[in-house]
Amino acid sequence: MLAREALGERKLTILHAIIKTYLETGEPVGSRTISKYSDLNLSSATIRNEMADLEELGYILQPHTSAGRIPSDKGYRLYVDMLMEEKEQELNEMQEKMLEKADKMEHLLKQAARVLANNTNYATMVSTPRSSANRIKFIQLSKVDEEQIIAVIVLGGNVIKNKIINMEEPLSNENLLKLNMLLNTTLNGMSIEEINLGLIARLKEQAGIHSEVVGNVFDAVADAIQVDEDMQIYTSGTTNIFKYPELSDKQSAQEIISAFEEKQQLTELVTQTLAQEENTGIQVYIGDETPVQNMKDCSVVTATYELGDGMKGTIGIIGPKRMDYEHVLKSLKRLQSELDAIFHKQE
Amino acid sequence: MLAREALGERKLTILHAIIKTYLETGEPVGSRTISKYSDLNLSSATIRNEMADLEELGYILQPHTSAGRIPSDKGYRLYVDMLMEEKEQELNEMQEKMLEKADKMEHLLKQAARVLANNTNYATMVSTPRSSANRIKFIQLSKVDEEQIIAVIVLGGNVIKNKIINMEEPLSNENLLKLNMLLNTTLNGMSIEEINLGLIARLKEQAGIHSEVVGNVFDAVADAIQVDEDMQIYTSGTTNIFKYPELSDKQSAQEIISAFEEKQQLTELVTQTLAQEENTGIQVYIGDETPVQNMKDCSVVTATYELGDGMKGTIGIIGPKRMDYEHVLKSLKRLQSELDAIFHKQE
DNA sequence: ATTAGCACTCGAATTTAGTGAGTGCTAATA
DNA sequence: TATTAGCACTCACTAAATTCGAGTGCTAAT
What is the pTM (predicted TM-score) of this model? Predict the structure, then answer.
C-alpha cells in the first residue's frame, strides 16, 4: 500500500499494464508490447529500464533470460489490493436462473457453485453454513415402532438434523410425552456450546427411571449435531483448471483435483476463511498465501455469506494466479449480496 | 462363449497371455515376449502367425504397423466372460477398517468407496440405495413455531426425509393432532407409487376445513420424496486415473473427471445398472459398452447391493480398459457380501 | 531523460539421423 | 503339413543439430 506511492505513477502504470496483459495471454510480456499497448507514449527501451527497476523491487520476474516478464506474487498482491480498494461496484442483475429452484438451500448453493463456475471459467466451491453458535429451535422424539424412536432437531436457520435411536426396552407413550416436554422446555433456545455434562446430568436426574433413555438421546443429539460439524461442500467446474496450461500438467492437476475430491482440505480452507474477520468478507490468497498446500500454484478468492444467527458459509473460486481478479471480485460481490438478500428475505 | 471353442485351445492360451501381459505393462506386446513367457514352447514366428489370425478375428489389434498387439474390446470381453464363469471365489476377510464407523449408512458408504479406491487403485463410486417401491413407515407433522410446521417422513430402510412448511394461518394443536392421526392411519405402509390424486382428494375431503393444509403437506411429501429420487453418490480416488497414461491426457482426464463431478452421468450409470437384472449382480462394461459416454475409453465394473425392502444401491469401479479384472471382481464380490451382511444384520 | 541501434542470449520449434522392437513373408526343416 | 529360422521392411521414438525470433542490456546519440 505504501509501496504504491514509493513506486511512482509511471512504474505503477507499467506494472498494471504488464499484469493485465499477462492475465489475458498467459505468456511473459515484453517491453515492446507494453510500449505499444499503454497510452503513455514511451519506447520499448524506456520500458525496459523501468522493467529492470520493477524486477529489482520484486514485483515482476523473468522466467529465464531473454524472456518477457511475468508478475510475481508480490506484484499480484499489489494489483489485488488496488482492486479491493476501488469503490463498491454497482451491482447489476444476477442470473435469474439461480433463483428458480431456491426452495431448498441445498439446491440453491449447488446452483450457486455452478453458476459461478460457468460465469468465471474457474473452479468453484460453496460450503453450507457452519452452525457455530447455533441455537436449538425445536426438538422432538417420536416413536416409529416399538423398538425405534426418531429424534428430530431443528436448529436456527432451519437446519434439520435427525437420528434414529434403537431402544432396548419399549417406552410408553406418556413417558415419551413427558420426555418431550422436558427436553423442549430445557433445551429450547440453547446454543450447542451451552449444553454441557452438568446439564445432561441434571436432566437425567429429572427424567427419573428414564435416565438411560436421556443418555441415549443426548448421544444421538450430540451425534446428529456433530455430523453437521463437517459441513457439506459443493464444488463445480473442477475441470476448468484444464483450461490453464500452467495448472494442467499431471502433477498440479492431480493435486488440485484431489483437494477437491477429498473435501478435507477445502474444509480447512473454509475454516481459515471464516476465522479471519474481514470488513468486506472477501479474501484473496495468492500462491503460497493459501491455507491449502495443494493449491500453492493457484490463487484462491473467497467470500463469506451470512444467514443470521451467526451462521456463516463460504464461497470460493480457485484458479491460476493469472486469474481475472477484476471479474472474479465483481462476480463474488454480486453473488454474496444475492445470497444475503435471499436468506434474509426467506427468514 | 461359443467363440471360445471355435478359437482352439492354443489361440486361447495365446490371447490370454497377451491380455495378461498387456494388463501389467500397458505396452503393446510382441510375439517374442509371448514366445518366451507362455509355457507352450513355440517360436516367435509361430506366435506371429497365430496373432495374425487373432487379429483377423478381431480379438487383438495393432496400434500401428510394426508395433505389438493390444487386446480389442472384443478380446477383453472374452477374457472377462471367462473370469466371470469361474467358480465363486472363496471370500477372505475384508478390511476391518470399514466396519469401525458403521453407525451411519452414509459414513459406511463413503468409507466403502474409499477403501475400494485404495484397494484397487482405480476410481470408485458408491450410490445410496434408491427408494424404488419403497414404503412409508412413519409420518408426522410437528409445530416448530407459529408459522412453521415440520414434516418428518420415515421410509423403509430407515431413510428419513423432512421438509419445513410455512403456514399462512396458524394451525391449532388439536387440529395438528387430528391431521397426524389421519395421515398416519391412511398412509402408513403405503408405497410411494400407491399415493395418487384420488387418494389425496379423499384425504383433503376428510380433513375438512384444513384441506388446504393437506394440500400443502402432500406437496411437501412429494417434494421430500422426489428429492430423494436423485440419490447421493460418493466418489473416491478420482485422481487414480492419472496413474494410467492412456487416460491421463488432458482430453480424457477432463471427460472422466467431469463425469465424476457432475453426478448426473453417474446417476445414469446407476439407473442402467439397476435396471439390468443379473444373477450375480455384477456387471462389466468395456469401452463403448458403457452407458456413460464420457467413459468410453474406460472399463466400468459395477455391483449391486441390497437393503431389503427392494432398496438397491450400486458400487462401481472405473479404470482403464486394461484393468486388473481378476482383482477387481474379487474385491467387488467381497465388498458386496460385506455390505449385504451389515445391512441385514442391522435390520 | 529518452530513444535508437546493435550484439547477444536462450527457450522453443523444426529437422535430421539413428535405433530397435516388431512385423510379414519365404524358404528350409522335421 | 506344421513349425521355425532368417531377412527385409516399417515406423514410433529419441537425441542431437539447427534454426528462429522474441526479448534483453548496454551504449551512444538526441
Answer: 0.79
